[in-house]
Structures are given as structure tokens and as C-alpha cells.
């Protein structure tokens, strides 16, 4: 066996061996602080050719400079501390190091072992593997991301002029949005897929990015072409002689925004069409006590211009107490706080006045919305309040008139009747033709008394008094009316049929006036020489079965009592079916055989109004008349 000579094992021989190795190798000794003996750096004492080439340093540069000065990356990456730990503990270290190399970024697998008071470092180039890993990672990210990504290469003519783009890369999301497969996209020219880009400005946008290098951001770009139909957030950046374009399909988001915008506009239009003024307010709390100290008006509708002479833009964003300081005194603010605390809606009508000049009566409703908000609707009812006051004053005057009419107007008429009767009885033989004059005078006085009586009855009904809530038996009430009309019934030989009727809730005296007038009219307007026939009937009817022409005041009910008074008299022209309910309306002249003041049916209508009901009349001349009353059940 051949033994190597001493010359063969010289340092030059070992250096040659190291230089032939593809692994980057260097050895370094510790540099210590002379005072503390702390390891503060390393000095390279040996390196191979592969290492020097990789770091682009000469052997002289490596041997005359400290390791930290040569490679600052060791401090940034924390590897210097690892080197020092190997020397101090004797435990080897293995890791990966990346940094800038001559051709760009390099990656190395690094192994550090202790050698005496220093280290031996082995660096294996793993750049290709890391680059492949990164490429695979980027490909995975591109394929999995919801953003569309495409790499477009510039297509130029022989003169080098930009004329088109070619797809070099397209991820699955891009292919899906563009409505084509990745195979169809890659290699295809942009204009062949989107020919309209030549005219709609898109190709010019790419040209500008390629020429200037300035990236382009397009937010909410609406694009409609072929399979592409929607809104996109787009970014175009230059990459070599081409461009990288990324875009996100925000069509669903944009359509939702547009739908919400339309709904908001519709809601605003609806609110602005409301006759009531509307505030949407949020509570303002005192930080320490969490007590509500004010409200901020977030939204106001246009009705505020009518009710408080302020435009919505003058109100929105301001606090309630700044706009309307009088709320603290009149109780509105306290009511709003209660609504927020209890969640119970409140309604109120209050007089408002503040130092800013706003004054009036307001009808207000407040409803809590969510945790910290509320909706307030209100109407300026100042004019209504003034009309109510005027009506009260008018009713008071009417009551005074009724008192005067009851005594002062009727008393002279009673005396005229009384004196006329005495003259006729005691001096009839002396009066001759004068007796006829006295009879006419008595008749005129009686008509005047009847008119005054009817006027008083009508005025009492119009006085705005509430209807007592009591049960009234209609059969008993009509029985009493028939007793009052007994003389007229006997004179006319009338037949009056009263079916089984319900009990109603209302004012017995007013209800009596209805049937007193309707039955007396049925007797009065009977056909000459024919006994009158009158029928009073009743039944329950559902609201859905009511006549379409019927207008009922107050809150609708599920059912109503229908009471009908039908006769076989002379009837009337259907054209006058509404007119007959007016005061002093008479279809027959005053000289006709049918006397009356024309107030009876007006009283009927007024009583029905007072009871939340309504009356309809139907007739044909010569065929009788039917009056139908509808009372809420």
C-alpha cells in the first residue's frame, strides 16, 4: 500500500482539496474583547474558492476584515448570536440563510460546528429548491385566491409600436370571470377576446401603463362585454414588456349597494311624502353617569318645512336641545327619555315655546328603534287648536242662543196662541170673517214654534257633546215613539210592523229622535186615501258586506247593526238622496199638503254621526222610501 509523502499533506494540498469542493466552506476564529474576554466577532482564517466566489470576496478581503463587517446580514438575521452560541456551548447549529448574491437572492443550508476557539461553516446552495418552492407557493396562491390575476405580454408591430396584448398567464378566477378556460386564455390576444377594447379606452389604459410605468387603480369599474358583465376593482402594473392585471369581482357588493341606495331613496321619498314631520334621533349619553342628556337628529323629512319652517339640512346632524331648547320645559324631552328607558311608545299633545321664536301646539308620537335610537313623528296642530277654541266659543254662543230661544222666542208665540184661542172662544160671534184671520195667525205661530223646537234639537246635537255609553233597547224605544205618534197612526189607519231589534250602545234621547223623525215622515208622506204601511227591521252585517258607497266615521269595526225603516209612501226622486239630509231641505213646496221645517232628516244624520254610524236613503217616486241605518256593533 502506498503511503503519502509529507509533501502530499502540505497546506497547499488541503487548500486544493477545499477549492475543488462545491460546498461553500470557511473557518473563523473568535475575536474577543481584551478586557472582558467576551466574544465580539470572528476573523476568517480559511475559505475555499466556492465560498469566495459566492460572496464575491478575495482571500485578502476575507482575512483582513471581521466577519460582521463583511456580512452585516449575520446581525440582521440573528445568525451571529448562533455562531457565538456554538463556540460557547460546543453544540452545532443547522439552519437556512438567505441573502443577496451576485445573481440576485441566494438561499443556503448552513451548518456551523465548533473548532477550537472558532467555527467551521458549511454552506450548501439550495437556491434552486427554494425558488421552486416559492414558485409552487405563488402558483398555489394564484390558483386559490379569489382575485383574478393575469400576466399580459405586449404585442408590437415591426416598428415596435404597441398594438395588442397576449395572455401569458391567467389564474382560474380570471378564467371564470372572463367566461373562458385557462387553456383558451393563455396565448390568446386580448383584442381577439375583447375587440371593443380598441374603442372603449381599455387598450389605451394598458398602453399608458406600459409607456409611463405608473400603476393604474380603477375602483368600481363597470364593464359590459360578452361574458363579462359587472363591476370590478382593478389594478394594472407594468411587468417587463407587459402588464400584470389583478381584479376583484364586486358585482354582488355593488348590486347590493345600488339596491340599498334605491331602497334608501324610496324610503326618503316615502318619508318626504308624509304629511307628518319625522325625526330619526340617536341618544347622547353623559359618559360618567350613562344618563341621556340629549339627542342627535340623524334624519328629518321635508314635512318639517311646513310644521316648523326648517329644512331637513338645517336639522340633520344637530342636537335636539340646540335646535329646540324648549323641550326641557314642556315635557317632550322627559317623554323621549322615558321611551328610551322603557321601550314603550308615547303620544302627547303639548304647547311649545322657546327663545328662538318657535311656538305652537304639536301632536307628537315617539317610538324606540334599536338600542339607542328613536323615531319621532309630529304635526303642528296650532290651527286645529285655534279652531277648537273658536268652536268652543261658538258652541257657548249657541248654548246661549238656545237658552234665549227656549224662553224668549217661544214665550211670545205661546201668548199669541193663547190670546187667539181666547178671542175665538169668547168673541167668535162678533168676529165674523176675523175668526178665519185668527185661525191663520194661530197656524203661523204653531209653525214658528215647531221650527224653533227643531232648531233647538239640531243645535243640541251639533254642540259637540259626547255620546253616553249606555245600552238602549230599540224595541222598547220604538214602542215609546209609537205611543207618541198614536193619534197620527189612528188618523191614517197606519200599519207599522216592528221586527225583533237589537240593543244599541248610545244616547237614548238622540236615538229616539231618529225614529221619531223617520216614522213621522213615513206617516206624513203616505199616498192619499191609502193606509200607510211601515216596517222596521234589523240585522247584523259584516264590514266586508257593507255598501261601497257607505262612508263611516271613526275606527272601522268588524260588524255593524243594520236597521231599516221602509214605507210604501209617495217616495222621492233618487237624485235628491243626498240633498234631503241637509238642514231646511224640503222636496215639497211650503204651500203643499206636506208640512214641515226640513230639519228632521238633518237631525237623523247628525245623530248617526254622533254615534259613529251612517244613514243611506233609497227611493223611487210613487214606490215608497227606505232609510237604512248602520251602527257600529
From TrEMBL:
The record's section on PANTHER family has:
PAC DOMAIN-CONTAINING PROTEIN (PTHR43304:SF1), PHYTOCHROME-LIKE PROTEIN CPH1 (PTHR43304)
What is the protein named?
histidine kinase
Q: Where is the PAS domain?
A: 157-213
CDD domains associated with the record: HisKA (cd00082), PAS (cd00130)
Q: Could you tell me the superkingdom of the organism this chain comes from?
A: Bacteria
- Reactions mediated catalytically: ATP + protein L-histidine = ADP + protein N-phospho-L-histidine
GO MF annotations in UniProt: phosphorelay sensor kinase activity
The yes or no answer to whether the keyword Secreted is present is no
- Which key words are in the record? Kinase, Phosphoprotein, Transferase
For this protein, what is the EC number?
2.7.13.3
Transferase as a keyword of this entry, yes or no, is yes
Q: What class of enzyme is it?
A: transferase
Q: Histidine kinase domain: which residues?
A: 404-633
